[in-house]
Design a protein that fits this description.
Jelly Rolls; disordered C terminus; signal (chains A, B, C, D, E, F); homohexamer; disordered N terminus; alpha+beta; 31% strand
Chain lengths: 197, 197, 197, 197, 197, 197
C-alpha cells in the first residue's frame, strides 16, 4: 500500500496538468466564444455543475399553446458547455402544441415518457414525416428542419428532447414572422415574404 | 392557386437537387466510412426510418447486474446516422447496476424517468462526481470518462441516456480486463496492468 | 536539370501515395455518406471538375416570385464535395423576392453585384436584422436562421451567395407549410401549427 | 391578439436564454481563442455587424502586381466570426496577377464578376489545374493548395472569393521565401530550400 | 528590389489583418474555452513557443510502475493549443509498465525509439489487439479505448506517443477505481462496480 | 464464474451492435469519401492493421536532397483512417534537407531522435520561426504553413513527425512551381507568379 501511495503522488503530477479538457463547465459571466462559454476554474467545479434538477416539475402550460418547453441548455445547465449535447422537457396539456419551429444547428431526439404525441418534420424537398408516438417511442428531427409536436392524448403528455448541441437555439415560426419588428410595409404584405398569393 | 403551383414546380427543381444532406439514413448493408454508414436512397426513406419503437418495453434485467441497456444507436436506429446524436434506455431492477464503463468519443446526458439512481463519474484528476438522482433529474457524463449508475430505489428505475454521437460505443470495465483473450501470462499477473500491489 | 528529374521521380513516389485527401470530387453515382459523396478516382479528375459555368446566365425569373436561385452545390458542382463551401446565383427581377427560408446547417454570405437588394434575417430572439444593400455590399446570414431577399431596385438585381457547406439545403417557408402533404385535418387548422389566433 | 401577446411573453423567456449561439459577432478587443474571437454582447449587436460595405470600391492596383485583395475576414467583418465562412474582393488591372499563394486551413470559391481571369492551382501530386474563366464562371481551390489568378482581359477584372473559414490566412510565396528574415546564410543559398540545382 | 519593397508594404497591410488564425499559442493565465486556451498576443509569440525541450531527458522511472510519462500537451507546450495534436515521451525501465488507461477524446500513435515494448488495446467488443513492438515500429490506439504498454526488453525502452488532441487527458484505471474518494460503502463492495462475482 | 459468463453473453449482444465506430480501418479498394476510406469489415481486422513496421529502417537518402520521407499515412497504414492522426519518419544524411513544403490541412509535431536538425516555418505575416533542435527536442509546425528541415549535424539525423490528419498531403515547393505542366508561356515568365522583379 505504501508503494501505491508513492506511485499516486508521482503520477498525479502528470494528471493535474493534462486534465484541463475533460470538461469545460461554462462560466456564464466570463467571455463567450464561438465554441461556447469560458470554463469555470476546475477547482471550483462540483458535482452540482453536472446535475440539473430544473426538469423535475412540469412547465407552466397555462398559455395559448397549452404547452411548455423547459430547457437545460448551456445557459441553464453550464455542465454541457462544449460537450455537444443538451436536453429539454416538453409538457403538453390536452390540445397542447409546440408550433412549427427549427433549432438552427442541432438535430433533436425525442422520447415520449407520458401520454402520446403526434410529431412531424418537413424536409427541404417539402416531404412531411409524421407519426403518432406512444410512451417509450423515439423520434429524430434532423438538423435545422421545421418540426412540431401535438398532444394526441386526452391527458397531459411529457417528452424529453435531446440536442446535438449545448446551445441549440429555438426559432418559432410565428414569432419570427408576425411578432417581430419588420417594417410596417412588409407586414402589410406578408405574402411577399410568405408566398400566399 | 394556379400561380402557386407554377411556382412550386419551378422551385422544386432546385430543391430536389440540393436536399441530399438534410439527413443520411444509414444503409446498414452498404459500405461504412469514418463518418458513418452510407445513406439510404432518399426515395426509399419513410417516417419509420426516423421513429424507433424498441424502447417501449423494459430490457431484460434477469442477469447478474440486474440491469439492461437498450440502445437506439445508428446500428439499431439508422435515422440518427451522421447527425451527432443517439439515445438508449436504462432499466435497473432493485440492486441493479450499470458497472463502471466509458463511451469512447461521446458525452452522455441522463434523465431519470422512474425511481431513483445513484450515478457518478471519475475525472482524469481522479476526482469522483457522485449524486443521487430523483425522477426528472438530469446528469451529464463528459466524453470518454469512466462512469456508472446504481439503482438507489427499492423498485425498478428507468432512465433515458442521450449521446453526442450516433455510435457512442460502450466499453465495460470488467469485460475489458477479465473476459478478454489476453495471454495467460498477463492474466495471471493482472496487477501488472491494474496496479494492485 | 538532370538532378532535378532524378529528385522528382524519387519524391513523387511519396507524393502519389499521400495525396488522396487534397480533394474529393463527388462521384454522384457512387454511395453517399454523412460527410458527402464518394470521391471520383483522382486519375479521372480534370480541371473541369473544379470549374462551374452554369452561373454565367441569369436564371429564369418568369415566375410568381420573379426570382431565381441557381445553385452550384455538390450535386451540381461536385468539386466542392467535402470542402465545406459552395455558391449560388440569385436573380431578382423588379419586384422579385426570395421568400423567407432557411439553410439547415449552413451560414451564408451574400454579395450584391448588380442593382440593390433589401435583405434581412430573424434571430431566435425574434429580432429582425434588415438592410438595403448596394452593389458591392456584403451581408451575413447566420446558420439555420430564417432570412429573405427582396429586389429594391427598379431593374434586375444580381447577387452571389456562398455557403459554409457543400450541400446547404434550402427550406422555403410556404412550401414547408402549405404545399406539402400534411393530413387535411392539420391543413384545415394551420393556425394550430402557426400560432395565428 | 391578446392571447398572442400573452404567449409571446411566456415563450420569450425561454428564447432569451437559449439564443446565445445564433451568432457570435467578434469583439476584436476581447480575448481570442482557437475557435475565434470572443462574442460581442448580444444586446450591442446591430444589423451593421452583419453588413460590410468595404468591398464597394476597387482596391488600389497601383502596385507591382497590379492587383489588390480586399478581405472581409473576421478581423475586418466581425459578423462572420465562428461561422465558417468569409469573403474577399479581387481587383486585377490589365496584366495584374495575384501571385502563387495558399490559404492555410481554408478552401476557396471564386466567381468572376467583370473581365476574365486565368486561374490555377497545383495539387500535392504536382498536377496543375488551369482554366480561363469568363464572367459568371466559378472555380474551386481546395484547402491549403498553392494557387494564383492572372488577369486575362485587356481591362480591369473583378472577382469575389469566398472561404470555408472566417480567418483563412494568406501566405504569398515570394514573401515567405525572399522577404523574410531568414539567416543570411540561408538566403545566400536559397536553392538548398527551393531545390533549384 | 525597390519594387519589391514597395509591393511588400502594400500587401503586408492585408496580411497583418488576416493572419490571426495561423496559430493560437495558449496563454495559460487567460480564460479558457471549450476549444482551448485564449491566444497569446501574436506580437509576443517567439519560436520558443513552438519548441519544447522538456523531452530530452528520460522521465523518472524510480516508482512502482518503473515507468514515466512526460507530456508535451497544451498545458506544458502552449504552441499546440487549438491545433489538434500533441506529444509525450514514455520511459520504461526493465519490467516497467504503463498500466491500463484511456485518453478521453484522443487517438494515439506510438513509435518505439529504443528497446522493445509489448503494447495492446481492448475494443468495445472486448477483443484484445496485442503486439510486441521493435525499434521503429508504430502502433495506433483508437480514441478512448483502454490500452497499456509493457517493457519487453531487458533494458530501458523509450517511445514517443502523439495524440489527435492538444489536451488528450489521461485516465489511469486503478486510480479511477481505487485511489479516489468514492463513498466507503462503494469501496467495500467494489465488485458491485467492477463485476467480479 | 458461471454468473460472469451468463452476464457476458447477454451484454455482448449490445456491444457487438454498438461498436462499429471504435475504429474504421481503411479498405483501400472500397469507395473513399471526404472523411476517408470505407471501413474494412470488423471481423477481418487484426492487430496488424494497427501496427506499421515500415519505419524500422532508414529511407533512401541517395538523392539530390540527401533526405527521405517515409510516410505512415492512411494510404500506407490504414489503421489511422478516420482517426485524425498519422506519422512519418524523416532521414537526413549529412547536408540533407527537406525543402520548403506545406501539408494542406494538417499541423505537424516533430521530435528529433538522432543527430540535430535546423527547422523553421514561415507565418502568413512573413515571420520566420527558426530553431536548431537537439535529440529529444520537439517542434510544432502550424497547419498549412510553409516549413523545412535541414540536417545540422555531421552525421545522419532522424526525426519522427506526427500529423493532425490521417492523410496530411505533402506539397513541395519547387515541384509545385517548376516541375509541373504549366503552359510554357507561364514557365518562361515565372516571376509573374513568383514576384521576383
Amino acid at each position: 500500500m505504501l508503494h501505491t501511495i508513492f506511485f499516486l503522488s508521482s503520477l498525479l503530477i502528470i494528471s493535474s496538468h493534462a486534465l484541463v479538457q475533460d470538461f469545460c463547465v461554462g462560466d456564464l459571466k466570463a467571455p463567450e466564444g464561438p465554441a461556447g462559454y469560458s470554463c469555470k476554474k476546475p477547482s471550483l467545479v462540483t458535482v452540482d455543475d453536472f446535475v440539473f434538477t430544473g426538469l423535475r416539475a412540469a412547465g407552466n402550460t397555462s398559455n395559448i399553446i397549452k404547452a411548455a418547453v423547459s430547457p437545460a441548455f448551456a445557459a441553464q445547465f453550464p455542465g454541457v458547455n462544449g460537450l455537444g449535447i443538451s436536453i429539454a422537457r416538453l409538457d403538453l396539456a390536452p390540445s397542447g402544441v409546440i408550433p412549427m419551429h427549427t433549432h438552427p444547428g442541432a438535430s433533436e431526439v425525442l422520447v415520449v415518457t407520458q401520454g402520446s404525441i403526434l410529431a412531424g418534420f418537413v424536409s427541404s424537398a417539402n416531404d412531411v414525416y409524421l407519426k403518432k408516438l406512444k410512451r417509450g417511442d423515439v423520434m429524430l428531427f434532423p438538423q435545422g428542419l421545421l418540426h412540431f409536436q401535438i398532444n394526441s392524448a386526452g391527458v397531459n403528455s411529457i417528452a424529453f428532447v435531446s440536442f446535438s448541441s449545448p446551445s441549440p437555439g429555438l426559432q418559432i415560426l410565428d414569432f419570427a414572422l408576425f411578432a417581430n419588428d419588420l417594417p410596417s410595409k412588409l407586414v402589410e404584405k406578408p405574402h411577399s415574404l410568405m408566398m400566399l398569393p
